[in-house]
Structures are given as C-alpha cells and as structure tokens.
Automatic annotation (TrEMBL):
<protein>
    <submittedName>
        <fullName>HNH endonuclease</fullName>
    </submittedName>
</protein>
<dbReference type="InterPro" id="IPR003870">
    <property type="entry name" value="DUF222"/>
</dbReference>
<comment type="similarity">
    <text>Belongs to the Rv1128c/1148c/1588c/1702c/1945/3466 family.</text>
</comment>
<keyword id="KW-0540">Nuclease</keyword>
<keyword id="KW-0255">Endonuclease</keyword>
<dbReference type="InterPro" id="IPR003615">
    <property type="entry name" value="HNH_nuc"/>
</dbReference>
<dbReference type="GO" id="GO:0004519">
    <property type="term" value="F:endonuclease activity"/>
</dbReference>
<dbReference type="GO" id="GO:0003676">
    <property type="term" value="F:nucleic acid binding"/>
</dbReference>
<dbReference type="GO" id="GO:0008270">
    <property type="term" value="F:zinc ion binding"/>
</dbReference>
<dbReference type="Pfam" id="PF02720">
    <property type="entry name" value="DUF222"/>
</dbReference>
<keyword id="KW-0378">Hydrolase</keyword>
<dbReference type="Pfam" id="PF01844">
    <property type="entry name" value="HNH"/>
</dbReference>
<feature type="domain" description="HNH nuclease">
    <location>
        <begin position="305"/>
        <end position="357"/>
    </location>
</feature>
<dbReference type="InterPro" id="IPR002711">
    <property type="entry name" value="HNH"/>
</dbReference>
Length: 394
C-alpha cells in the first residue's frame, strides 16, 4: 500500500507539472502575439528612426539582441496578423503558437495577397480555415493546409527566380569553428558541385583515408584559398579581402596568449604565429614595432593598414544597436579632417553607410577609455541597449 501511495503521489505531482507547462505555453503564445502586434505598431510609426535604425528587424537585432531570423519572424508575424484577424484573436488568446503564425504568414505575403485579389479569393474564409486547423489539429496539418492553399493559388508555382531560394548560413561555435547550411537552385548547385568535385578529384594522394565529406570540405577551403591568393575577389572598402589576425606584440613574440580573427574567432597565439608565415594572411600587431597606425595630417584617406587596424578594433559598425559587419562600413573621422582631425586609429570609427550619414546629420558616437562606444541622438539623449543582468555572485 505504501508503494501505491508513493506512485499515486508522484502521478499527482507530474500532473501538476504538466498543467504548469500547458499554462506557460499558453502564456508564451499570448506574449508572442502581443509582441508581434507591438512590433507592427512600431514599424507603422517608423519608431526605429528615433534610435537611428532603418527597420524594426535591425532594431530588434541591436536592441533586443535577437538573431536575424527571430527578428524577421516577429516583423513578418506582425504584418501577417493584420490580414488574418481570426488567427490573430486565437493567438492573443494563447491558442496559436508563433510557429503556426509563421506558417500562415506564408500565405499573406504581398505577392500572394495580390494573387488572391486577382482570383477573387475571400481571405476571411482562408483565415477561418487556418484558425480552425491551427487550434484543433497538429502543427503538421496546418503546414499541409497552407501548402495546398498556395498550390491552388499558384498552380504553376511562382515565376522562376533562381536567386529567391538561395541561402547560405554560417554559425560560429564557442571554439571558433564554423558550421554552415544552405540551399541552391538546380543550376547553382550544379556549378558549386562541379567546382568542388574538380578539387576533390585533383587531390587524391595514395593512401588517402579521408571520407568523401572530408575531401569535399578540404576542396571548398582550397577554392577559398585560391581566390584569396590570386585576388579573384571583389575589393571591399578599398581593401582586398584577406584573413586578418589581431595579436599583441608580446603574445606574438612568445607564442603564448590568444589572438582574434576578423570574423570574431579566438585562436591561440601559437596558431597565429603559424598563420603569420603565410603571405596571404594580414597581420596587425598593436605595439611599438607594429604597423604604423597614425599617418597624421598629411593623408586624408585611410590606408589599407589603418583600415585593417580599425576593423580589428571595432569589429563592425559602432553605432549603438547596429550589427553591420566591418565589410559594410566606412572609416569615419571622429574629428573631421577638414577641422584638423588626424587620420589615425584614435580618430577613427567604423560606421555603416546609414549610420555614417546619421552621424553627419546630428547623431554622435564617442569611444570611452574602456573601449566601449556610446551614441547620442541630435537632442543630446543617449541611445542605449539593455544592460546584461549581473550574476547573483556579482
């Protein structure tokens, strides 16, 4: 009897936990719907302009610290809920998830709304069907219903545009290694496979025990090496693309410590010393015997060496809330050259084209002694992003 009592008690506890989970899922759905609505309201009001941002997606990335895909999902959801009021009501009641809203949103893109209008489709009926399936059936059923609707709307599929479906996504891990995934149209995929296969077949030494996947990975890297070595890549902001490593002079000399690479990976100083032997690697050493960073008043344009140094120091656009990478940026003189500002590392800042324009029209960026950049609006108020929460130990 005691064993039965314990088991029954455990079952009751488990039931309580599941009730809690269900309640939290419902609450999350409500919050997601409210957030999507608020994002849409901010978008319609052009609110991101107040903080110098172009769109709600860019504002969410910089100020909400969301990934690009998550920010875009929120913006898309807010727009979609305007066209699907029944689904919006169900989402606000916690009955429909953000994932279901994202699936339904595929049916109300501008192009598909125009196609529906041309065919006299009653969106209220579509909305009602989507809502019923979303609230009563598994997620996969909604996916199937949306797919059937789109097939009926565009029986021959959209106009073939090979660029529309192409994508390549890089994910950097904590150890600096990179994974990537993507999708190419048939012709694009054929081109890439042909180039990779040429290197795979050309590099088959006796006793090679690499798997085919390993050989293909090595082939892709070889293609990149060849392109960088021969200069067969576009010049970005006056600097030919290169692998860049930032390392302090003492670390380079001793082989101890760490170095930072251009896209943010951290490697050992020993690895950096190895890379420095390769002529295709640009080394920027911050120290008394390093690259001359201060070219003074005689030169207005930023040299390649100075730009590389600014890129490695700033990493990307320094305007608060912006995540534009360094290759999208210009080097801005904090004190304008015409006003006596030097062309030096100390007087330089990376700004993307949009924020470079903003700074020339009243916004201001300033680097603190700690190395942190701060941004002010034309009215003197500071643009800030949420401060990270301190750990209990702090």
């Amino acid at each position: 009897m005691r064993y039965c009592s314990i088991m029954c008690s455990s079952a009751l506890v488990d039931g309580d936990v599941l009730d809690d989970v269900a309640a939290l899922v419902t609450e999350r759905n409500r919050i997601d719907a409210a957030l999507a609505r608020a994002v849409r309201a901010a978008e319609l009001a052009q609110a991101p302009e107040r903080d110098g941002q172009k769109s709600m997606a860019s504002w969410l990335r910089g100020h909400g610290r969301l990934s690009g895909s998550e920010a875009l999902r929120l913006v898309t959801a807010g727009r979609a809920l305007e066209h699907l009021p029944a689904l919006a009501k169900a989402a606000e009641a916690g009955l429909v998830s953000a994932g279901q809203v994202a699936e339904a949103a595929r049916a109300v893109t501008p192009r598909r709304l125009a196609a529906a209008a041309e065919r006299g489709v009653d969106l209220a009926v579509v909305d009602a069907v989507f809502t019923q399936v979303a609230t009563e059936q598994p997620h996969a059923d909604l996916v199937a219903v949306v797919a059937r609707y789109l097939l009926g709307l565009e029986p021959d599929g959209p106009e073939p545009d090979p660029t529309e479906g192409r994508r390549l996504v890089f994910v950097r891990h904590a150890d600096g290694s990179v994974s990537f995934s993507g999708h190419l149209d048939a012709v694009g995929g054929e081109k890439v496979q042909t180039a990779v296969e040429a290197h795979v077949q050309a590099d088959r030494p006796a006793g090679d025990e690499r798997t085919r996947a390993q050989r293909q990975g090595d082939a892709l890297l070889q293609i990149a090496d060849n392109a960088l070595a021969t200069g067969a890549v576009p010049v970005l902001r006056t600097v030919r693309p290169h692998v860049a490593v930032r390392i302090d002079l003492d670390d380079l000399a001793t082989g101890q410590g760490a170095a930072d690479m251009g896209f943010g990976a951290t490697i050992s100083a020993a690895r950096a010393r190895w890379l420095a032997c390769d002529g295709r690697i640009s080394r920027v050493v911050f120290g008394p015997d390093g690259v001359p960073l201060d070219v003074g008043r005689e030169q207005r344009l930023v040299s390649g060496a100075l730009r590389r140094a600014v890129e490695l120091r700033d990493g990307g656009c320094v305007f608060t809330g912006c995540d534009a990478p360094s290759h999208w940026t210009d080097v801005h003189h904090l004190v304008h050259w015409i006003d006596g500002g030097e062309t030096s590392l100390e007087n330089s800042a990376l700004l993307c084209e949009r924020h470079h324009t903003k700074v020339h029209h009243g916004f201001r960026v300033e680097r603190q002694p700690s190395g942190r950049w701060r941004t002010w609006r034309p009215d003197g108020t500071e643009i800030t992003t949420p401060e990270p929460l301190l750990s209990p130990a702090a």
